[in-house]
């Protein structure tokens, strides 16, 4: 068999394994989707009537949905981390590594299968959003582009998870760190609130947070709200900033993870 | 000699800890080498190095003639590895586990399916083929693990403590299955803490401790190293113990040792029936009533304890190693 085809077949076989897991333990999706879905209900439905976003006529519901979608990306860190750490702990990675496979195969399959989980979670969040009255107003291409951007962001986060899983090993510790990352990066961003109220230095940090860029970009693409604060580059060009930061994350994370994978031992 | 596994001067350090210290070994094709040692002796590190999972800091190793560092891919095509953990995917069924790994071994979809059926039959797992592996018993999991490691029909099989935690019946089944593979010409490197396992399966035994090889030989050779057959005399009364020792001492190679609690004297005699007869006569003559008079060959346990000093006092352990 030609080598490229063989690698493809390996990735297909392993991705199939993870998807089988997903089918047998569908509750895995709740791990990713539960919090965001709850957020949609709490923020988009309960808070929507009392919170008013300054300087815009839009409702909070319109504003907050893009932020919740970005949060789905962040909660993806945990699933890959736990999947990879679990395989390591049970000696499966040792077995895979003793096979004549390409060195990227195991992690690529993990992240590809978890991307399916991410996509399903995004669908769940979207349905919940539609149910509470959220709508997209962009052109068809813009609307689709927003979701593609979300998937790309989720994919980068899955590689964060792969690295985290190999470095931390301990499942409880991973859950803790993943939860911390989720809270830290989603609240230090424009996901749930405009950044206008923050002190200048913190505002700069939050504006350059890829989570801000991604949620701002989705808002723009879906026509959910105009830019809330003006002036700084990331707020003015969220799509470019999102794409560049996702690209940078992958360029750094993928080779680094593969390096760690090569030397990662079971114990 | 046609060596299927050959290692020369393998060394691996983690910080200041020497996991492997100049380990050399050679296993003839179609034979079984038992790697025996206490926890942390370097057994698993040796296996992982030979199975291309760890790179040694120094030294070389060849599997079926291929270098484990430079020709990793060639080596991986020829080895099977069954680790300490029974590395099976718990959510997949037995059959799915085999098919998945078969596909990763590039047997093709159909080839993997056919091979899976063969192995399910061979390892008596057909009845559980469609059950998730998490519902398997310990013995079934090990069998599945062994089956998975044999998917690619490897020339060399590494078994890292294959029966740890199994009940005696499952252990015996697994032993037979390993022997079956050896019968088909597979070379096996087996690590174990069970001396009877090494005794039963291995043609040659390597005793390792703290990363070093401290003894090598067949089971018989190792037993001989510890000394010949020993006479065990159990007397009827504890009071007779001292007398028995003094009567037997002139006949023994080294001073006899007595065990108060068991009322037993251990005597190492020179070889031959004569020595045995003299011992019996001496006891009879002294009027010592004997409950049991038995000749015992040293077990691998004795070898193990003596070599690794696990049960010996700490003072005499270094001497023993220096002597070698």
UniProtKB/TrEMBL annotation, chain A:
It is found in: Cell membrane; Membrane. It is a multi-pass membrane protein. One of its GO terms (molecular function) is ABC-type transporter activity. It comes from the Bacteria. One of its GO terms (biological process) is response to antibiotic. GO terms for cellular component: ATP-binding cassette (ABC) transporter complex. InterPro entries: ABC2_TM, ABC2_TM_bact-type, ABC_2_transport, Nod_factor_ABC_transporter. Coiled coil: none annotated. The chain crosses the membrane at residues 29-51, 63-85, 106-132, 144-167, 179-202, 239-261. Residues 27-264 form the ABC transmembrane type-2 domain. The keyword Cell inner membrane does not apply. It holds the Pfam family ABC2_membrane. The keyword Membrane applies. Keywords: Antibiotic resistance, Cell membrane, Membrane, Transmembrane, Transmembrane helix, Transport. PANTHER family: NODULATION PROTEIN J (PTHR43229:SF2). Belongs to the ABC-2 integral membrane protein family. This is Transport permease protein. It comes from Streptomyces smaragdinus.
From TrEMBL, chain B:
The keyword Transport applies. One of its GO terms (cellular component) is plasma membrane. Keywords: Antibiotic resistance, ATP-binding, Cell membrane, Hydrolase, Membrane, Nucleotide-binding, Translocase, Transport. Residues 5-235 form the ABC transporter domain. SUPFAM superfamilies: P-loop containing nucleoside triphosphate hydrolases. InterPro entries: AAA+_ATPase, ABC_transporter-like_ATP-bd, ABC_transporter-like_CS, ABC_transporter_ATP-binding, DrrA, DrrA1/2-like_C, P-loop_NTPase. Signal peptide: none annotated. It is a peripheral membrane protein. NCBIfam families: drrA (TIGR01188). This is ABC-type xenobiotic transporter. It comes from Streptomyces smaragdinus. The gene is drrA_8.
């Amino acid at each position: 068999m030609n080598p490229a085809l063989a690698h493809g077949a390996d990735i297909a076989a392993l991705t199939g394994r993870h998807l089988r897991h997903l089918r047998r333990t569908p509750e895995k999706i709740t791990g990713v989707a539960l919090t965001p879905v709850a957020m949609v209900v709490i923020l988009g439905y309960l808070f929507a009537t009392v919170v008013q976003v300054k300087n815009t006529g839009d409702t909070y519901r319109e504003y907050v949905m893009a932020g919740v979608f970005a949060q789905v990306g962040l909660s993806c860190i945990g699933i890959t981390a736990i999947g990879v750490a679990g395989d390591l702990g049970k000696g499966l990675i040792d077995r895979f590594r003793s096979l004549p496979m390409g060195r990227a195969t195991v992690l690529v399959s993990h992240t590809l299968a978890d991307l399916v989980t991410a996509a399903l979670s995004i669908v769940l969040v979207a349905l919940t959003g539609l149910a509470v009255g959220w709508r997209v107003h962009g052109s068809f291409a813009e609307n689709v582009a927003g979701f593609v951007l979300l998937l790309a962001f989720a994919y980068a986060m899955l590689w964060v998870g792969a690295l985290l899983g190999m470095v931390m090993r301990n499942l409880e510790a991973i859950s803790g760190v993943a939860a911390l990352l989720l809270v830290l990066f989603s609240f230090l961003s424009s996901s749930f609130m405009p950044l206008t109220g923050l002190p200048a230095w913190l505002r700069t940090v939050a504006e350059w947070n890829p989570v801000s860029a991604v949620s701002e970009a989705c808002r723009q693409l879906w026509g959910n709200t105009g830019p809330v604060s003006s002036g700084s580059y990331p707020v003015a060009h969220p799509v470019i900033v999102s794409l560049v930061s996702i690209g940078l994350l992958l360029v750094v994370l993928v080779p680094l993870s593969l390096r760690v994978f090569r030397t990662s031992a079971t114990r | 000699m046609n060596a299927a596994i050959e290692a020369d001067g393998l060394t691996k350090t983690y910080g200041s800890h020497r996991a492997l210290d100049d380990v050399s070994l050679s296993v003839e094709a179609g034979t079984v080498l038992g790697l025996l040692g206490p926890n942390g002796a370097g057994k698993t590190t040796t296996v992982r190095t030979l199975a291309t999972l760890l790179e040694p800091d120094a030294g070389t190793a060849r599997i079926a003639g291929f270098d484990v560092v430079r020709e990793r891919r060639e080596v991986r095509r020829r080895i099977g590895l069954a680790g300490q953990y029974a590395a099976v995917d718990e959510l997949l069924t037995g059959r799915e586990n085999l098919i998945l790994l078969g596909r990763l071994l590039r047997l093709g979809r159909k080839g993997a399916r056919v091979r899976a059926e063969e192995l399910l039959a061979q390892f008596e797992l057909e009845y559980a083929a469609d059950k998730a592996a998490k519902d398997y018993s310990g013995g079934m999991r090990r069998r599945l693990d062994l089956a998975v490691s044999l998917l690619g029909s490897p020339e060399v099989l590494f078994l890292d403590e294959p029966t740890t935690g199994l009940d005696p019946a499952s252990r015996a089944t697994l032993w037979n299955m390993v022997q079956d593979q050896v019968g088909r010409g597979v070379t096996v490197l087996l690590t174990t803490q069970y001396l009877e396992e090494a005794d039963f399966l291995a043609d040659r035994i390597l005793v390792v401790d703290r990363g070093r090889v401290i003894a090598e030989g067949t089971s018989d050779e190792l037993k001989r190293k510890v000394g010949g057959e020993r006479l065990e005399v159990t007397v009827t009364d504890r009071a007779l113990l001292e007398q028995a020792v003094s009567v037997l001492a002139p006949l023994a190679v080294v001073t006899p040792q007595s065990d108060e609690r068991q009322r037993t004297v251990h005597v190492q005699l020179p070889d031959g029936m004569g020595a045995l007869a003299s011992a019996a006569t001496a006891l009879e003559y002294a009027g010592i009533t004997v409950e049991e008079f038995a000749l015992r060959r040293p077990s691998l346990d004795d070898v193990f304890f003596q070599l690794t000093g696990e049960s010996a006092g700490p003072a005499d352990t270094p001497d023993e190693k220096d002597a070698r």
